[in-house]
Structure formats: C-alpha cells, structure tokens
Design brief:
The protein is an alpha/beta fold. It contains 10 helices and 14 strands.
C-alpha cells in the first residue's frame, strides 16, 4: 500500500541529544517504523557525511535534505538528486567583502567527488569549538589550508564570529547579493555568544527543498509532517501540512508550531512517532 505521509525531522536540537548523539530508543523506534513502511527522513544543516556518521544505525531509505537545502541525497545510494551549488565568481566577491571586515569562512564543497571542509587556523572560541568537534568525530573532510582556496564545487560558506562582525557582512550580502544567495544568520546552539552566517545558493532553503522532495515522492504537502527547533526550520514549517516543535525549540518556532512535544533530550520525536504510528501499527 502506498504511504500517504512523509515525516521529516531536523537533527541538531531536534532528533539529536544535546551531546550530538542519537539514543538507542530513537534508533530502534525509527527503524521499526521504516520497516513497517512509513516514510521517515531528515532535513538538516549538516552534511550527508556527518549526518549518516552520527546516525549510522538508522536505516533511512527515502531521500534526505542536507546543508540547509543545498542537496537532496538518495539515502540508499548516496547519490545527489538535487544540487544547489554556489558560483565561484560570486564566492570570490563575497570573500573580498569578508576580507575587508577581517573575517574568513569555513568552506564546504566537493573535489573529485570527495566532500571537503577547508579552513584556516581558527582565531576565536567559536571556530576552535567547530573544528575540535569535527576532529573528535574523525571528520575525514577536514582540509587545513594557509589561505582559503575554493573547491571545484562550492556548497556553502560558513562564518563563525561574534554577532557584530557578522551583522556587517550580512548587511553587505543582503544589499549586493539578495537574489543570488540564501543568507542564514543564527546564534550557535552549542556555544552561546557566537553566531553563524551561512551563505549558499538562493535555492538552498529547507522550505523550497521540502516542496521538491514531496513532489518527487508524489506526496501532497498537506501530508508532510515536520519536526524542528530552530529558526532555520521556519521555512519548512511554512510549507508543511503539520508542524511539530520540540519543547526546547526557539520561541518563534514554538509560536508557529501546530503541536509541542517532549524535548530533544527526552527523545520527543521518537516518542511522538511511537505514540502516533507504531502503537497503531502494532
């Protein structure tokens, strides 16, 4: 029987615990539902590589959305179904603007079909924490460079700084590249006081890619259920049929959501799925 619903969860702050892990309970529950024929996937700011590394025991079998909508990936094969990359000439201009302010990004991209994360020596606590966490996870994408080099395919430029510096660059980008870039600005959920400014293709947007994925899977948007916690989830909340916020979500997400559930650390998403789907199936 054709499944008529699609369940899409954000990861950090939503499905993941605050220590960036997935509980055995969540893993077991989602796998049971996938085996029962339910369509469950994820939509995240993370790369496919890191998302699957953290969730290596969950057997996702429908496409997922990564890099905040830059890619839609086939979870069965790892193949890119949709790629919203950045133009190199545009990135060069942005890097010049950033240089005048005195800031440098982390550069996510691909070279010879291999995902890379290029970075220079971290200068602040936010940047150091960003790299330290990825080294702990043995992130094979890390490429230290003395000067930022742009890869063959550019996915996103991610700046981590104090708020005032990033607001300067954000203002410049909004003025010069408003129709060319997707601009995402938010406080770091793992290190308060530091902010992230993520610049990507103007189509790299969770809401836009939820629409694309639903059409690809022949599921009406009103039958798409999304789970989230942070401001980058708002665009997918605006297009989905049902919106569910974990208890720890940003106030704006809580206000927008149709329903509130237990927090990420209480396995809120898995408990909702179990109570509303698994128990009915059994």
């Amino acid at each position: 029987m054709k499944q008529e619903n699609l369940f899409v969860t954000d990861l950090d702050g939503t499905l993941f615990h605050s220590n960036v892990t997935v509980s055995e309970y969540t893993t077991m529950t989602i796998n049971k539902l996938i085996n029962a024929g339910y369509y469950i996937t994820f939509c995240t700011a993370r790369s496919y590589y890191m998302a699957r590394k953290i969730m290596n025991k969950i057997n996702f079998n429908v496409p997922c959305i990564v890099f905040n909508g830059a890619y839609i990936i086939d979870c069965m094969t790892g193949e890119k179904l949709v790629a919203n990359s950045l133009q190199k000439s545009l990135c060069i201009e942005v890097l010049e603007d950033a240089k005048k302010i005195g800031i440098v990004p982390f550069v996510f991209g691909q070279e010879k079909d291999e995902e890379v994360l290029k970075y220079v020596l971290p200068e602040n606590k936010g940047q150091k924490n960003f790299i330290m966490q990825r080294k702990k996870q043995k992130d094979k994408r890390l490429r230290f460079v003395n000067k930022i080099e742009l890869p063959d395919e550019i996915i996103t430029l991610n700046f981590i700084e104090k708020e005032s510096q990033l607001r300067k660059l954000k203002k410049i980008c909004e003025k010069k590249y408003e129709n060319l870039l997707s601009i995402k600005f938010a406080e770091d959920i793992y290190l308060k006081g530091f902010f992230s400014l993520e610049l990507s293709n103007h189509n790299a947007d969770k809401g836009k890619m939820i629409k694309v994925l639903a059409k690809y899977m022949d599921i009406p948007l009103q039958n798409v259920v999304v789970f989230g916690d942070h401001l980058n989830d708002l665009t997918m909340f605006k297009v989905a049929g049902r919106t569910i916020a974990v208890k720890n979500a940003h106030r704006e997400i809580l206000n927008f959501a149709d329903e509130h559930i237990a927090s990420n650390n209480e396995d809120g998403v898995a408990r909702y799925l179990e109570n509303n789907l698994l128990n009915k199936f059994l």
